[in-house]
């Protein structure tokens, strides 16, 4: 992967960035995504934020190699601390992290979101954390996508400002993904369901502490929800 040819996952994330957006790519790694978006003419300005020194240096090196130093500012900062008010950022991308971490980055950087119109997230796991954050903070889901690459399944959740309420199933499985129920969606939740059943079976053979009972109840609830989704 490079800035000429992104992974399928990042290409999907890029497809949700609107023309002319001012982007902040948080956890930018090599800055492939902002470089690609500028080289293809979709945007002309971006911030590439990194909290880890190694990827930060890689991003700087790649931006320089691409000759895009006038278009991309690479900053070392924790989450949205990499964004400054005069950047004029209106679009945030956060890809390749767990849902709870993405939600915590958004929560801790909430004060930086004043001028932001769109947030594009690609959680690797626990995407419901992002939906919960959205509902609690005045954002609504406008699009979702699920895709498979190299044997791994990824979700993309796109947020814009607005009030929304989602029921238990929509929060867990995604309102748009649930409506579509693509073969990849079904595959993901069949995998999860099999794993939950396996863990529950092993716990049934374990001791009977309060913690084990609590864990079993959680698993039974997940199994019941997934069963409803996959059989309807």
Write a brief caption for the model.
The protein contains nine helices and seven strands, in the order H-E-H-E-H-E-E-H-E-H-E-E-H-H-H-H.
Helix content: 40-55%
Q: Count every beta strand, where a strand is a DSSP E run of 2 or more residues.
A: 7
The CATH class name of the largest domain reads Alpha Beta
Coarse shape:
elongated
Share in β-strands: 15-25%
Number of domains: 2
Helical stretch count? Answer: 9
Compute the gyration radius: what is it? Answer: 19 Å
| Topology order in helix (H) and strand (E) letters | HEHEHEEHEHEEHHHH
Protein name: tRNA (Adenine(22)-N(1))-methyltransferase TrmK
Pfam families: TrmK
Organism: Sporosarcina highlanderae
Fold and architecture overview:
InterPro entries: SAM-dependent_MTases_sf (IPR029063), TrmK (IPR006901). It holds the Pfam family TrmK. It comes from Sporosarcina highlanderae. The chain is α/β, with parallel strands linked by helices and 232 residues long. The protein has two domains: 8-166, Rossmann fold (3-Layer(aba) Sandwich), CATH 3.40.50; 185-231. 45% of the residues lie in helices and 22% in strands. The protein has helices at residues 8-14, 32-39, 53-66, 99-108, 128-136, 168-173, 175-180, 183-204, 210-231, and strands spanning 22-26, 45-50, 72-76, 91-97, 118-123, 139-149, 152-161. It has a seven-stranded mixed sheet with strand order 3-2-1-4-5-7-6, sandwiched between helices. Helix 4 (99-108) packs parallel to helix 5. It is elongated. 38% of the residues are buried.
